[in-house]
Predict the structure.
Amino acid sequence: MTGPEKAQALRDRKGGARIAALTAYDYPTARLLDESGVDLLLVGDSLGMVVLGFPDTTHVTLDHMLHHVAAVARAEPTAITVGDLPIDTYPDAETALANARRLVAAGAEAVKLEGGVRQAEKVRAIVESGIPVCGHLGMLPQRVLEEGGYHKKGRTPEQVEALHEGAEALIDAGVFAIVLESVVPDTAAELTRSLAVPTIGIGCGETTCDGEVAVVTDLVGSYPWFVPPFARPETDVAGSIRDAAATYVRRIRT
Ligand code: KIV
């Protein structure tokens, strides 16, 4: 299937089987996740924190993303590969389209960008060029410095209204799905009920959206220095690596 066909297939899952999405940043992880049947692999700019050691995603550049999108794409996933447009790479429609094309040339089958109404014309330009776009609303990590931290969204009537307006603008511009991040559960459920495209939640409560996305290091426990409160690790890769390395050190020294 082509990227646009995969995006349409996910778009058509609205109201059907829930979407299971995970981040991936490298070839072996992408292969393993794809073999496990994940629907969507997001080369997220969370890369900056959980792989590159930056304090937040505002340090991620397009070159970082191109390098990691290419690694994930070499796994030739069945799942759709979505690449994040990092901060400052979509200031206007023309630049957004040029940078989306670079992500696609590196192997992405769709792109994701953060924000609602003010991104709609950029989304439209990318979609009209044939590149599927996933929206991202709620808590927007690229604005963490402006907002002074990571705050839950969708608490006040004004925030709920802004989320609805943003989502409708993105849908009108052609997104195939919208990631909702850290939106309070009632608001996430209400958005999910009213929007025509699938919502993919993270930190919104586990059953409020049409699917879930998790940062892979939260799922496998390989980044133990910061674990968000909503993470549900299924294994302890950090513990296994420490044990294996300590066993190795003992074996070599004795
Ligand atoms: O960068 C990322 O991993 C993301 C997810 C948190 C949705 O955008």
Observations:
- The CA atoms of residues 190 and 238 lie 37 Å apart.
- The pocket of 3-methyl-2-oxobutanoic acid is lined by residues 23, 42, 44-46, 84, 179, 181, 202, 213, 215 (CB under 6 Å).
- The chain has one domain: 3-214.
- The mean pLDDT is 97.
